[in-house]
Amino acid sequence: MNTNRLERINSEIERYRAAQPELETILALYQKVFDIQESASSQEEPAPLISDEDAIAKLAAGEYILKDIPFEPSAELFHQTGLKLGRAFTQTAGEKFPTPALLKLIENHPGGLSGFITAMLSDNLEYLAKFTQNTSFNPETLLFFVTNLVSPFLTAQAKYYQPQVDLLGWDKNTCPFCGSSPRYSCLDKDNGARRLFCSLCHTQWNYRRIKCAYCSNANAEKLRHFYSALFPYQRVDVCEKCKTYIKTTDERRLGRECLPEVEDAVSIHLDSIAQNEGYQPG
């Protein structure tokens, strides 16, 4: 396990817990989730799926690296990680989370674990809604569970290709590794350059400041942002064209490089404000 990284994650969460005691329950859950994910990611040591040269060729052709490439993590580690996440959810909710049934549903997918992950990446909520339509599972609950379960395995694989992404560059509004939509963004502490962050595989890539992270609208008159009153370095970028928003941390105001996954978890108040104003997460 990357002990230094986990220590930093815990340190950041503790700092925010002190400032937002009302978020104690959700931040305690995220702390457990991050711990479980870091453990799984450190145990999953896959060989690169494709060579550096092939990865660069795919990026140059405008294709995300994982496109049309089967991805299947260790079945036993995946199952055990799912059980750990389920226990964390149960402890937080105070009622038993249906982990065994969810894992069975995933692992019995006609295409196997690899097929499930491929389908989830291609369709996300829409696919999961169809996947659960004959069950009692809530699609959003399943999405939260599954994305947190799949994330450390994709992260372990994606780390091989971050240098290729940085070298070649990527100007699309989808992740260059797994094809997912970005979840968070950051403004670089040194030069203010914008980076988008994939919450599923933790890949980061540069993206234009004046451009919607979802519909690619580049009309400055249709883009605006507002800052958090609680933490002035956190803000919400909104697009008037597609009515979506993405949360952002300005590292120049923060004074250091941020951890986007933590910033996302601790900025729930910004989600509420944006959604109350009629914007939806991309």
TrEMBL record:
Q: Which InterPro entries match?
A: FdhE-like_sf, FdhE_central, Formate_DH_accessory
| Span of domain FdhE central | 174-209
Q: Which GO terms describe its biological process?
A: protein maturation
List the record's Gene Ontology CC terms alphabetically. cytosol
Instruction: Supply the SUPFAM superfamilies for this chain.
Output: FdhE-like
Gene Ontology terms, MF aspect = ferric iron binding
Which PANTHER family does this UniProt record tie to the protein?
PROTEIN FDHE
Q: Give the protein's recorded name.
A: Formate dehydrogenase accessory protein
| Gene (name only) | fdhE
